[in-house]
Design brief:
This is Pilus assembly protein. Keywords: Membrane, Transmembrane, Transmembrane helix. The radius of gyration is 30 Å and the shape is elongated. The chain has a four-stranded antiparallel beta sheet with strand order 4-1-5-6, covered by helices on one side. Helix 2 packs antiparallel against helix 3. The protein has three helices and eight strands. The chain is an alpha+beta fold. 33% of the residues lie in helices and 22% in strands.
Length: 212
């Protein structure tokens, strides 16, 4: 009995192999922290590259006939391709979309078109009251200001570049996170006054021309 007790006591006091156990306990949390840090750094780097490319090409496109070294039949296509080519060098297998909308001024970005008459004074467009508005985007309907494309001289152009790309590490295999990352960057510039800009038409109700 005493021999058995001595054996148990010596076993409890034996510290050989504790390093292996401690390593096994901390290796997984350490790996998770390292992977998370690298993922965040990767996303930040891609965002920085894409923002820089968007800012640069947007400034280049403010003149009437910009020279943009990229494929495309129109200036808008070359702008988009230039951003994709830059971001694609660091974001492999990424899906990148670029939206370009032009406005008359900075105050009109992502805002509804301007009301000219508001019959009932509620601050909203009412077709039944035959309210009138400035058809800034030429759509013939009362909606958000701005039109697709880089616009005309002296227009404000709002660029949005969105990207969806695979994660740096295959964490989705463990059902931890989505296999892809989605993010976007934006910038706004004003075109040089390289041409006359026609005033927007004033329409009323369902799209009839305003009669003053």
């Amino acid at each position: 009995m005493r021999l058995a007790m001595r054996g148990l006591l010596s076993l409890f006091r034996d510290e050989r192999g504790t390093t292996v156990v401690e390593f096994a306990l901390i290796v997984i949390p350490v790996c998770i922290v390292m992977i998370g840090g690298m993922e965040v750094a990767y996303q930040s780097y891609v965002r920085t590259v894409m923002q820089g490319a968007l800012d640069t090409v947007a400034r280049t496109a403010t003149v009437e006939a910009p020279v943009i070294a990229a494929a495309g039949d129109s200036t808008e296509e070359r702008i988009a391709e230039r951003v994709r080519s830059h971001a694609g060098t660091v974001a492999v297998d990424a899906e990148i979309t670029i939206v370009q909308r032009s406005y008359l001024d900075f105050g009109g970005v992502e805002r509804l078109e301007k009301l000219v008459t508001d019959v009932n004074g509620n601050g909203q467009f009412d077709e039944d009251d035959n309210d009138c508005w400035e058809d800034e985007n030429g759509s013939g309907t009362f909606d958000e200001r701005g039109r697709l494309g880089r616009g005309a001289g002296d227009d404000v152009v709002f660029y949005t570049a969105s990207i969806r790309m695979p994660r740096l590490f295959p964490v989705a295999a463990f059902d931890l996170l989505s296999p892809t990352i989605a993010m976007s960057v934006e910038t706004a510039v004003r075109n040089q006054p390289f041409g006359d800009r026609p005033p927007p038409a004033i329409l009323c109700g369902s799209g009839d021309a305003f009669v003053g």
